[in-house]
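Hi V.,

Quick status before I head out on leave. The structure for the redesign project is tokenized and pasted below; the design run finished overnight.
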């Protein structure tokens, strides 16, 4: 399929087109700021309910202004700079963690009718897509920005001039890089079925309930969700902030506004990762369409998108409230020994199915049966090998 092109940028670009793009950037940034404030409050209140506590209830009705109060407090706190820190890199690192989170969201379609239309809407007299940008390599841009965020974590620990943040940043970087491999392999399954790297093209391919959630066989979705949780350093994979281990992790030496930027980046990444999951696997703004044209092009698509987004924000909080923290060896074992082989094996199965469906001389049912059987047999043998290795270590006196 040929990737969709934003009609706003397909012709001559003048002042009006530039103003529309600037407007979309401002709206996207404002939405993320509000979403982060909501996410912090929502996580505190939901975990409070799950743990039979009240949660924030003083700042504003139901404590809804607690995040704003915390931000004001951090803004007026003293900004510390360690004596042994690399001053320039120490100040740069928070921005390297925050900016990629915003840039990832710019390629996410948050509206537009892809079920019966081309996803465009009329904005200030211009036809455009409801996303800041739609590059032909949007998925690769998402993966590239998630890789850039690793530099912010690593440089924050290294530039602090202390061994504790350095150890925390090394562990966090190893975790993020390890799970990024499994995450990328799961994305390949989506690209294979969609035939495009454009995020709007992927959403368009999922119209009429052809969601990649079931077209890819659920396994890439599960791998992406687990890998995304680990890459975000969210519970149960938040080992960089384990209270019994590395103090505060890579941002131990940060305070005031710079610490707030890391805090902001963590929750903004949670929102953007949820938006990417919705885009890749749940059809983005696709959903039931009814009513007049303005309702189908503006209201309903955005409503479906934000409802799906809210579901995954709830899931991330649910993980935090219910799952125990992994040990670091368990974390790396799951990434390298389970998720990466599973993602690669399932991708090969989907590739075989695609080849068989395009070739009448190949029995599609036979390819599916044999491929799935080999996949689960291989994963079973891998699990047995891991269990045998663990037993051998225990017999030799090396405990997990």
């Amino acid at each position: 399929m040929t990737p969709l092109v934003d009609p706003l940028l397909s012709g001559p670009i003048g002042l009006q087109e530039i103003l529309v793009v600037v407007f979309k950037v401002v709206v996207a940034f404002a939405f993320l700021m509000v979403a982060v404030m909501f996410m912090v409050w929502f996580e505190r209140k939901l975990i409070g309910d799950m743990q039979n506590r009240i949660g924030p209830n003083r700042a504003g009705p139901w404590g809804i202004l607690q995040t704003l109060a915390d931000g004001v407090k951090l803004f007026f706190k003293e900004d510390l700079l360690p004596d042994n820190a690399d001053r320039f890199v120490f100040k740069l690192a928070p921005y390297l963690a925050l900016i990629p989170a915003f840039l990832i969201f710019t390629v996410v379609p948050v509206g537009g009718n892809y079920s019966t239309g081309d996803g465009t809407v009329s904005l200030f007299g211009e036809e455009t897509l409801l996303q800041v940008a739609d590059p032909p390599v949007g998925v690769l841009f998402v993966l590239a920005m998630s890789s850039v965020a690793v530099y912010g974590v690593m440089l924050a620990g290294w530039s602090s001039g202390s061994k504790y943040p350095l150890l925390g940043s090394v562990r966090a970087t190893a975790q993020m890089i390890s799970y990024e491999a499994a995450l990328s392999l799961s994305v390949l399954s989506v690209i294979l079925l969609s035939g495009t790297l454009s995020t709007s093209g992927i959403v368009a391919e999922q119209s009429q309930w052809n969601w990649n959630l079931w077209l890819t066989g659920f396994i890439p979705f599960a791998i992406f969700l687990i890998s995304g949780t680990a890459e975000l350093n969210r519970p149960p994979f938040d080992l960089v902030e384990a209270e019994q281990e590395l103090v505060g992790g890579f941002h131990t030496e940060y305070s005031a506004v710079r610490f707030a930027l890391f805090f902001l980046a963590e929750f903004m990444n949670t929102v953007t990762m949820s938006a990417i999951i919705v885009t890749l696997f749940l059809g983005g703004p696709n959903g039931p369409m009814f009513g007049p044209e303005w309702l189908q092009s503006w209201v309903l698509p955005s409503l479906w998108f934000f409802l799906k987004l809210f579901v995954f924000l709830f899931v991330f909080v649910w993980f935090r409230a219910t799952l125990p923290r992994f040990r670091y060896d368990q974390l790396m074992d799951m990434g390298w020994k389970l998720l990466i082989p599973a993602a690669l094996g399932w991708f090969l199965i989907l590739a075989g199915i695609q080849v068989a469906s395009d070739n009448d001389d190949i029995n599609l049912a036979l390819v599916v049966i044999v491929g799935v059987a080999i996949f689960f047999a291989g994963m079973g043998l891998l699990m047995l090998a891991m269990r045998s290795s663990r037993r051998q270590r225990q017999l030799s006196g090396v405990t997990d």
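Above is the designed sequence. The mean pLDDT is 87.

G. will cover questions while I'm gone.

Best,
W.
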